[in-house]
Amino acid sequence: MTIEDGFDRWPTFALSPTEYELAVADIVKDAGRDVIGWRVQHLDPVDGMDGTYVIDVTVRFRVMGADFLILFECKRHSRPVERGDVQVLQDKLRSTGAHKGVVVAASGFQRGALQYAQKHGIACVRLVDEAWVYETRDHTAQAAPQPTGAFVAYARSLSDRGYRNVLLTDQQSSAQELLFTAFGDMPTL
Q: What is the pTM of this model?
């Protein structure tokens, strides 16, 4: 069975929503070692054209003299993230002028959510813990390394050949690739 069939063999988190959001913030903080002014905020009010949004986690930083804003929406749902959840983040990106959006899910993503995210440059990340084994739907994907016993973040992207999974935790280059690929010719940090 797959997530689409209504079955997910991963246990749900024993974390509160706030603890889950703070775990995401800690992983994002580690990714900001090589940029200027890397600032991670939890429950950050961000002004948009149609009002103010309180974003679960934001990252603000400066690269090459330009200021950037990344919005992270944390979804600690018991069900996989749906397309509508990703569309709401896309609307917030348009309204606020943020440069990148990331959805972090505890229970994975429905196919429609991943397809929409891919078309709109939104990253989909699954946060897993301890000895859990990452479930992949792409037989060509590389096996995930053994988890460290702490929270581990993976990015999942959809391609014509299936799903690609990239370990982000303690992998600065992978986290930078996830965050900066939407910026075109930006040099590797």
A: 0.63
| H, E, C per residue of the chain | CCHHHCCCCCCCCCCCHHHHHHHHHHHHHHHCCCCEEEEEEEEEEEEECCEEEEEEEEEEEEECCEEEEEEEEEECCCCCECHHHHHHHHHHHHHHCCCEEEEEECCCECHHHHHHHHHHCCEEEEEEECCCCCCCCCCCCCCCCCCCCCEEEEEEEEECCEEEEEECCCCHHHHHHHHHHHHCCCCCC
pLDDT > 70? residue 96: yes
pLDDT tens digit sequence for 153-188: 666 666 666 666 666 666 556 566 656 654 444 444
Beta strand 162-167 pairing with 151-159 = antiparallel
